[in-house]
Amino acid sequence: ASANIGVVGLAVMGSNLARNLASREGNTVAIFNRSYEKTETLVSEHPEAGFIPAQTYREFADSLQKPRTAIIMVKAGGPTDAVIDSLVEVFEPGDIIVDGGNAYFPDTIRREKAVRETGINFVGAGISGGEEGALTGPSIMPGGSDESWITLGPILKSIAAIAEGEPCVTHVGHDGAGHFVKMVHNGIEYADMQLIAEAYDLIRRGTGKSPAEIAEIFAEWNKGELESYLIEITAEVLRQVDAETGKPLVDVILDQAGAKGTGAWTVQTALSLGVPVSGIAEATFARSLSSHPEQREVARALPGPDEEFVVTDEAAFIEDVRLALYASKIVAYSQGFDEIRAGAAEYGWNIDLGAISKIWRGGCIIRAQFLNRIADAYAENPELPVLMTAPYFAEALTRGQASWRRVVVTAAQAGIPAPAFSSSLSYYDGIRADRLPAALVQGQRDFFGAHTYKRIDKPGTFHTQWSGDRTEIEAEDTH
Ligand code: NBP
């Protein structure tokens, strides 16, 4: 046994991760893939990696030093379960199985529990950064036991992205905590992408600028507080010209956005936790809306505003959009971190929110300058109840709110959909409101369902006898 780490599953992600591992001092990497051709190809294409190939799970286990540590990178769902079952057969108590795929966190909780019974450690680790990140340094979000972290920590630190001298990996929490945090990362990614797309659409339709010209605006924005990987690649995509037609590529791509489900998981989980992640939800729904051409075809007949959309002061409008984008982005992250906190409370994970923002500074898709500010906010107050109320963000919202409102009004008047911009603003106004019409909703609930209400002026639970003489009585709490 000469390998300190193994990789199972050698499609794009697994082979890049295996190469990344092999390139780091001190690692010897055993590899296994269900069909052996992929293993052979990887070995022959990368002799420098010194891979130890295995044809069977038994051979794979024998090539690993104890405690054996293997990272699974196969299709999420059934294939992951199949590989876990095979590894459990050949591994021993104390060994470590890591699932680096995009598992749904309840699956990870279930698997961890089942594998733990055999004495083997199971770690669900979210890995972000796509193919490129897997090869050069991803952001890694591992869950699992403290025991497994002792062996796994140094290995994962050796391959993770480095941000400001620190590796982008931390032991997130037990069992499914890592995959939970990765899920929310992806949800925030959906919101961030949708917000950028809305900004682009408003600028394009408001100013008539070409995609290439708008690319320059994004490139400029990328030098300031919006600096992030997603803004950077947006400029690249907008600059791209289609070789076949000579048109901007963005104009020949079908306007239907796909999704692999992590955005939907984030929203479904938030719904069951009772956390309003409205920006993420709108971003997820915006993709669904785009992907129903049959509905869009018939709905095209519905009227829009009568007046033409004209922007008189282009520079001022573009600056308004920039500030609206930044404010909405703050809301999206604030909501995402809320979901992580609620998930941690629900599932009993001790998650350090500041540490999460730090490991997202490099390697992952939502990497951004701005994550340093989130880390600062949680360093100052780990119990911060609403991230966007931290001084730095509150200042940005104060500075941007007038622009944000103008952009949302403009979008509504111009008939341009801006669901993430407008829902973020509504969330902002909702959470900061002195009083909400929830009082009326509770009154309605009491009317038709005797769901009771509480009063602002005295303790207790009350019900108005709506179908009787409408006097109020003290009631059992049925909120
Ligand atoms: P795929 O998700 O396309 O899976 C292909 C791999 O799964 C192959 O190695 C295949 O083996 C193996 N496999 C299957 Br399918 N069924 C199997 C079974 N029953 N037993 C054993 N192996 C089986 O690979 P990928 O695109 O490299 O992604 C790997 C994981 O990483 C996925 O969970 C994915 O969601 C995640 N991912 C993450 C990112 C990211 O940015 N973090 C990006 C892309 C993917 P074969 O060669 O024998 O068919």
In words, what does this structure look like?
The chain is α/β, with parallel strands linked by helices. The chain is 55% helix and 8% strand. The protein has 20 helices and 11 strands. It has helices at residues 12-22, 36-45, 57-62, 78-90, 105-116, 130-136, 146-159, 177-207, 211-221, 229-239, 249-252, 262-273, 278-290, 293-299, 314-347, 353-359, 371-380, 391-414, 419-431, 438-449, and strands spanning 5-8, 29-32, 52-53, 69-72, 96-99, 121-128, 139-142, 162-163, 166-167, 462-464, 472-474. It is globular and about 80 Å long. It starts with a strand and ends in a 5-residue tail after the last strand. The model has no long low-confidence stretch (mean pLDDT 97). This is 6-phosphogluconate dehydrogenase, decarboxylating. Homodimer.
Strand order of the largest sheet: 3-2-1-4-5-6-7
Overall pLDDT confidence: 97
Beta-strand segment tally: 11
Radius of gyration: 25 Å
What is the overall silhouette? globular
Distance from N terminus to C terminus (CA atoms, Å) equals 61 Å
Q: Which structural class is indicated by helix and strand composition?
A: alpha/beta
Q: What is the overall number of helices?
A: 20
Measured by DSSP, the beta-strand proportion falls in 5-15%
Major sheet summary line: 7 strands, mixed
